[in-house]
Amino acid sequence: MKTLILALAFLMPAAAHAQVSAKATFAGGCFWCIEEAFEKLPGVTAAVSGYMDGRTQNPTYEQISTGTTGHTEVVEVTYDPAKVSYEKLLQQFWINHDPTTIDRQFCDRGSQYRPGIYWHSEEQRKLAETSKAKWEKDKPFKEKIVTPVVKAGRFWPAEDYHQDYYKKNPLRYQFYVSGCGRYARLDQLWGKLRK
To answer: Which pLDDT score is estimated for 195?
Structure first.
C-alpha cells in the first residue's frame, strides 16, 4: 500500500504540490511601517521593502532619499489567495496609511513617500478602483482621498538593513512611529476600523 501511495504521489503533476502565491504592491510612506502591517496578516507569506518607479537602475536608499530619482518606497507583498483575498489586503492598506496626502505620509516629506496602490493584473486594478470608490463614499473623515491606483513597474528590493526593521530594531522603530505621529493620525482618520 505504501508503495502504491508513493507511486501515485510521484505521478501527480508538480503544480499540484506547488503553493499558489500572488504579488501585491503598496506604498504608504515609510516602508518599514507598511511591511509590519502586512507581515502580521494571516495568508501573507512575505513582505519586502523596496523601491518602484524612478529613473535609476538598482537604486540605493541614499539615492532615493534625495527625492530626485522618482522612486517610491513600496512594499511587495507575497500572499496565498486561498488564505487571504486581495480585497483583504486592500482593507489592510487603507487603514494603515493616510490617503489624504500627496508626496508625504505623517512626518516624512517628499515624492518618495507618496502613497499608491500598484496593480499587477486587470483584476487587481478593478478591485483597487472599486475599493477606492467605496472608501470615497464611506470614508470616516472629510478630506478627499488622493491615493492613486497605478500599474506596477519594476520592483527593486531595499537594502537588507531595511528588511524587517521593526523586528531588528524594535525600540528605534517604536520611537520613529510615535515621534512621527503615525498611530495618532491613523486613529484620527480611521477610528474603530483600526481595532
So the answer is: 77
